Amino acid sequence: MTATTSDATTRRDFLYVATGAMGAVGAAAAAWPFIDQMNPSTAALALGTTEIDLAAIQPGQQVIYTWRGQPLFVRRRTPAEIASAKAVDVSTLPDPLARNANLPDNTPATDADRATKPEWLIVKGVCTHLGCTPTVSTPTAPEGEYGGWLCHCHGSAYDTAGRIRKGPAPENLAVPPYTFLSDTRVKVG
Ligand code: FES
Fold first, then answer.
1. 15 pLDDT exceeds 70?
2. Exposed (0-12), middle (13-18) or buried (19+): which is 187, by Cβ within 10 Å?
3. Distance CA 154, CA 115 (A)
C-alpha cells in the first residue's frame, strides 16, 4: 500500500485496480498486493457483484476498479469536496436527476442522493457523452473547472458529486447499485 500514497504530491491520486472478470485495467506493479487483497470471490463474480475494501483508500484519493467490464470510480472525498458538492443549487444543473440506481428514477441530484455516505462517492467511470473514461481532478493535478473529473474526449466537466456541469455529456455519472456491508466494506452490484 505504500506506493499508493507516498508519491501523492508528485502524481495523480488514483490507482487502477482490477476486480472484475474482465479486469484488464493496467496497474502499477507496486499495486498488486493491494489488488490481491481486493479481488472478489468467484461466487461474487458470478453474480456480477464485487466487494471492495475501503479501508486503504485515503481522503482525496480515487481508486478505479472494473465492474461488469467498465471502470468504476471509488472516491474518498475530502470535507472540502463534499462541501463544494453540497453548495450547488440542483436547479442550476444540466442534469437535475440523481441517476442513482439505489433510488427512484425521479430523485433529484442533491449531493446526499448521489453519495449515501458523504465521504464515499461511487460512480461508473463512463462519460455519459460517448463513453470515454474521465480523468479525476486532484488538488495537485486539477482537471476541469468543477473539481471532479474532466473528460478529455470532448470537454465534459463533472463536479465532486460526479454531476455534469459543462460540456456535451447529457447526464451525471451513473451511480451503480451498492450496499455498505460495514463502514469499510461495500458491495457493488
Ligand atoms: S465522451 Fe466524454 S465528452 Fe465526449
1. no
2. middle
3. 26
Of 113, 111, 121, 5, nearest to 58 by C-alpha is 5
Residue written as cell 437535475? 96
Query: What is the number of structural domains in the chain?
Result: 1
| Cα-based angle 115, 148, 166 (whole degrees, multiple of 5) | 110
Q: Which residues line ligand 1 (CB under 6 A)?
A: 127, 129-132, 151, 153-156, 167-169
Chain length of the chain: 189
Tell me the whole-structure pTM to 2 decimals. Answer: 0.80
Percent of the chain predicted with pLDDT > 70: 75
Q: Does the annotation count 154 as an active-site position?
A: yes
Judged against a pLDDT cut of 60, whether residue 158 lies above it is answered with yes
The domain in which residue 123 lies consists of 2-188
The CATH number of the domain where 113 resides is what? 2.102.10.10
Q: Are 50 and 57 in contact (CB under 8 A)?
A: no
- Per-residue pLDDT, averaged over 137-152, amounts to 94
